[in-house]
Amino acid sequence: MSIRVVRLGSPRQPGEGLRIGTVRRPPRGIRKAEFATRNYFDLWFPDLSPTPATIARLKSGQGAPAWTAFVRRYRREMARPGPSRALDLLAALSHAADFAVGCYCEDEARCHRSVLAQLLAERGARFAGR
């Protein structure tokens, strides 16, 4: 049992399980009934996405300093009680079920899902292929 970190909209991997979209908004131009069949997500969970203000600050900055500030802000947001409990839950579930968390960004290294994976790992989550 484990978590995979994926790009939403990418082909599903064998044994991936439930795909959870940790994004602020659902995909544009796609009917809700098609989210899963088009490999976006089975469950939309925006509670683990960065706030619009945090994303805006990242987009307005440049390079490593902007990314460092983004990571700091996103980690603060995820330390709040609701998101923190959700992270604890997902980390615990990774020992009993297969599922994936993801975002639309092409480059995982500059996407909140890389930080999300770190936060889950810090809580003892089990990952597939990591």
What does this structure look like?
The chain has 130 residues and is of the alpha/beta class. The protein has a domain of 87 residues. 38% of the residues lie in helices and 12% in strands. The chain is built from 4 helices and 4 strands; from the N terminus they run βββαααβα. α1 runs antiparallel to α2. The model has no long low-confidence stretch (mean pLDDT 95).
Which tags fit this structure?
alpha/beta; about 130 residues; 4 strands
How would the blueprint of this fold be written?
Blueprint: E1 3-7, E2 18-21, E3 43-44, H1 52-60, H2 63-78, H3 81-93, E4 99-103, H4 112-122
Parallel strand pairs: 1-4, 2-3, 2-4
DSSP helix count? 4
In what range is the share of β-strand residues? 5-15%
The total beta strand count reads 4
- Secondary structure: helix percent: 25-40%
| Amino- and carboxy-terminal Cα gap | 13 Å
In short:
The chain starts with a strand and ends in an 8-residue tail after the last helix. It contains four helices and four strands; from the N terminus they run E-E-E-H-H-H-E-H. The protein is 38% helix and 12% strand.
